[in-house]
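Per reviewer request, we include the raw input and output of the structure prediction for the construct analysed in the revised manuscript.
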Amino acid sequence: MHEFFEKPFVNTKVNVVWGEMDALGHVNNVSYFRYFETARIDFLKQTGLLSILSEPSHSPVLRDTYAQYKRPVTFPDTLHIGSYITDIKEDRFTMCYEAFSESQQAICTMGYANVVMFNMKTGQKTAIPDNMLDILKQYEIGKS
């Protein structure tokens, strides 16, 4: 088994489909942001955060998102998106992603999203609720 699967990630399996390839014959860069979105929602489901976020007043909002393309991916392939948390602050955190290609047995793309907690009733940033913070800390990597 590859070392990728030994890391403490929440893993999401994504099948590459033909329609995601571009004129150059590899997966178009925009597809990775969809993969990361799928992994982000799966992270929320697998960790139980999705049920906590059913409270309509608190919502995580993307501040920005980033991708670094390391290797081109082509159809057919299956990607495993490993998600984890870094840089937790009072009202924000960073969710990181590593996309591992089954056919290449290598990480093909890495990325992150900076996420800010918002109170949707007031339109203002708010502190991460304690019950959510407890879960995020379980998946935090890189903290000394």
